[in-house]
Amino acid sequence: MRTSAERPALMADGVATSYGELLDKVSGVATWLGRWPQFRAEGVPRVGLACGNGVDYIVLALAILKAGGCLVPVAEELAAAERKELIQRSGLCGVVLGNREKAWRGEAIGREESTGAGWMPLEKCKIQHEAEFCALDPAFIRFSSGTTGRSKGVVLSHRKLEERIVAANAALGIGPGDRVLWMLPMAHHFAVSIVLYLYHGACTVIGTSHLADSVLEIARTTRATVIYGAPFHYSLLAADKGGFPWQDLRLAVSTAAPLPAAVAEGFFKRFAKPLVQGFGIIEIGLPLLNTGGAEDTPTAVGRPLPAFDVELRDDEGLPVAVGKLGELWIKGPGMFDAYLSPWQPVEEVCVNGWFPTGDLAETDAAGRVFIRGRKKSVINVSGMKVFPEEVEAVLDRHPAVARCRVFGIAHGVLGNLPAAEVVLSERETADTRELIRWCRKSLSAHKVPVRVEQVAALSLTASGKLRRE
Q1: Is 433 helix (H, G, I), strand (E, B) or coil?
Q2: Which of 331, 320, 415 is CA-nearest to residue 360?
Q3: Distance between CA 401 and CA 239 in Å, rounded?
Q4: Which ranges of 52-147 does DSSP label H, i.e. alpha helix?
Q5: CATH numbers and ranges of domains, the chain
Q6: pTM of the prediction?
Q7: Using one digit for the tens of pLDDT, what is the confidence trace for 17-44?
Q8: Which of 77, 40, 37, 71 is nearest to 57 (CA)?
Q9: For the segment 285-310, what is each residue's pLDDT rounded down to a tens digit?
Q10: Quick count: other Cβ atoms within 10 Å of Cβ 341?
């Protein structure tokens, strides 16, 4: 943390926590953690953190790291079976419980005084390649969303974490004068965000409501200069009818999901500031950010940050031309160290330092990258590619559709055909024929779903993304 002890590090519910106070709290909790025998066991202790958004999450996460542990976030929305699997695959020695944590009610054997956090010890089991894991000086294990398969668990060392936040800030430009309004779940977004803000001396303002009037009131009272959120948050802000101009805002970053053009246009119209879409990937960090072109091309994820190289390659591994579809490959600092389960060092995943993301993308003449979809989810209709995300974007624009999922169904002659499941908004109606006609207005014939089924809910990942089978 590079700032004076008196400067505010965090703000929540109108209360500021200085950098000095934050360091004192972190040190106190780290000392408390170090007293538990499970934490002092041989090797690097892998410690789960189950805590809701807020100052306590930041204090507890940093305390685990300061005490020499490896942080493993345990998202609060996980079901009991998912929590059990995460514990087993990570080989946790224990879980730090936030004072409002309900999933393990009554299972803590001790409480830390300043935060009320609890300690739930576990019988630590060794993981595959325990010695290799410890040799990495690991700081962080994060299980990805697993949208198209079983998550592997990404291991990130202290050195790689620092490389990431330095590389990302070359484009973000976060500094001591910034107050970053934070809207995302900390269990899914922490390393190349809140750690970055603290490292560069900024103040993180923690929002507690997604409603536009509440967000803007916090922005007004704290004079927030940066906001980090998802398209959902920006759609609410774009619809705001108030008069607050938010003149202090210098950077609005959209992440976690593809940014619809209509949301970007609405936000720009309301606040006269472009939405800057970023492309974050758990294995790499933040290699792409749409600075310099967000107003004209808001749906692009931008150009590579200075420290990164990007290539689009075909199925044979050869570069593709501008405007042609290819898989996105990335090379740069802060690359993850290994997959945890099953164990796979980064050298076995990358090819000459290049990481294949599995995302299909195109570039324009200015070098901006546009993500088109996941390689595994493309639907092949008689040799023509259909991206579920493109069809879903059209269906989502229908006033009756709350959420949808597009997938391929087998066809004896054409290979596959697109189909869709839709969840309708409350008190809205729309039949299959109406939704298919809606798609025909905007899509080529081979992209139009041949079947649309109404369902009560869609399966989501822990971070709220569509789970694709």
Answers
A1: helix
A2: 320
A3: 18
A4: 55-66, 80-90, 130-135
A5: 8-126 (3.40.50.980), 159-375 (3.40.50.12780), 378-454 (3.30.300.30)
A6: 0.85
A7: 999 999 999 999 999 999 999 888 778 9
A8: 71
A9: 999 999 988 999 999 999 999 999 99
A10: 20
